[in-house]
Each structure stands twice: as structure tokens, then as C-alpha cells.
Amino acid sequence: MKTLIIGGTGTVGTQVVKYMLQAKQPIRLLTTSVHKAARLPVYVDPYVANLDEPETLTKAFVGIDKVFLLNPQGHTEVEQAINAVNAAQKAGVSKIVYQSIHRVRQGAHIPHFQTKIAIEEAIMASGLNYTFVCPNNFYQNDFWFKDAVSAYGIYPQPYGEAGLSRVDVRDIAEAAVKALFNSEYDGLSIPLAGPEALTGEDTAAILSEELGFKVNYGGNDLAAWAAQAKLILPAWIVDDWVQMYQFFQEKGLVATASDLQLLTHVLGRAPRSYAAFVREYAPVFQPESVTV
């Protein structure tokens, strides 16, 4: 039987697919796009369906034993996930691994944290066997800021000085795949975090050290950040993220020793560091005139 990957064409999902293929596990990938389906790796079974249209999901779950669920932030996020959970129940799926957020209940006032909590509760109430994988802020989010870093020497993500235990997306994917096939993690929330709590200034300092030119932290002015962000993102997302960054600035989101102990056990090694991430992807952040 196959594993159904929902959300398999995004930042995390593509890495989940990669680890599944490396493990030689048969997978089906649900996508809303015929064009994306046509571009999937040859060993992936594509299925075009829509989480907003539950009638399209029934056949997608035929022959499915396990499900990885990652549905994007959106106005129907909870309903989409519940549609997937209902289809999984009807199909007799043995396990669902859902991507939530690290220590999500600490930020329960943040809209997209609220949706993750609602989905977790729906999965727990469903009677399905489950594991939640719960990542902190992604290192790979910094690819969005590569132009600010390379052209202006500014790191603009305004997460402040309280500290974030940021994480490499590849660690998230590897942990998710291990959770799918290891009953040891049934019923658990696995924290996905990096080995150190980083401030905005720490991040800029690491970028400076690893890239060989000065990078400054852009600061904590959320009104200024929101004004710029609304030029390229929907206002409702920016307003949500302002609440998230305010929470990060005031409280941080820092992994405990027990969080890191569990994650190290799941991975079989320490999680990747931010410095190692920047070192590996240094060419992405270099000015165009610099040859690396």
C-alpha cells in the first residue's frame, strides 16, 4: 500500500517526497494542478484533487495506508484538513502525520496558530493513529530575503531578541518520514527545532561570518515591515504574521532541552545548525558580482 502526501510540492513537501523516494516507499501525491502532476518524479503516483472539494478525495485515498498532511495557510485551512481526515477515516488509513507548529499553544492567539490547534484537535478526535511534527521557523524562509541580504546587506525578518530555535526543512522532512513508519512516535508531538536559539542580531552575525560581508539586522519595527510586506502579500496574511512576529519579539519560541533530546533521538543525530545551512547555501546569498 501507498503513502499519500498532501502538500508535497512546497518547501517541506518536496523534501518529504525526496526522503520517501530514498527510502523506496511507494507514494501518491495529491495536487490541485495538472501541470504540477506532470512534472513529478517518475516514481511518484500523482492524483489531481482538491481539499476544498471532498467529493474529489475518495479515489485519492484508495489503496492508501498512511498520510502526510500539510495544507497551506488559508481561509479554508481547517475545513480542508477535516475533509482529508474524513477521507482517511473512510479509507481505513492506519496513520496520519500532520505538520503543525512548535509549541503551537503558546501562540494560540495568532490566527494561523489557531487553525493548527483546531486541526490537531480534529485529528485527535477522529480516532486515527497520528503523530504531529511541529517545526519552528524555517532556515529556508531566508531564501525569500536573499536579495535584501545580497544587495543591501540587510536581514529583514523582524523576529527580535527573545530567540527562535529555527530549523532546517530537511530535518522536518526526515522526522516526518520516520514518524510515518515508526510506531514509537504514535500519539506524540515531535518538536522540530535547531540546536540554538537565535536572535535577529545573531542571524545577521552568522550571515556576516559565513558570507564574508557585513549583514545588519533590519530591526523590530513591525509597522514598517508590514507596510513593505503588503506590497507583495495579501493584507490578511501580513496582519496575521505581524501578530506572530510580535509574539516572537515578546516571548520568543525556544526549544527546551527535552525538545532537542527527543528530536535528536528521532533523527539519530543532532539537528542542523543555522551556520551550517548558511555555509551550504552561501552562493545563494552572495552579491551577483561575487564569484564563490
UniProtKB/TrEMBL annotation:
<protein>
    <submittedName>
        <fullName>NAD(P)H-binding protein</fullName>
    </submittedName>
</protein>
<dbReference type="Pfam" id="PF05368">
    <property type="entry name" value="NmrA"/>
</dbReference>
<dbReference type="InterPro" id="IPR008030">
    <property type="entry name" value="NmrA-like"/>
</dbReference>
<feature type="domain" description="NmrA-like">
    <location>
        <begin position="3"/>
        <end position="252"/>
    </location>
</feature>
<dbReference type="InterPro" id="IPR036291">
    <property type="entry name" value="NAD(P)-bd_dom_sf"/>
</dbReference>
<dbReference type="InterPro" id="IPR051604">
    <property type="entry name" value="Ergot_Alk_Oxidoreductase"/>
</dbReference>
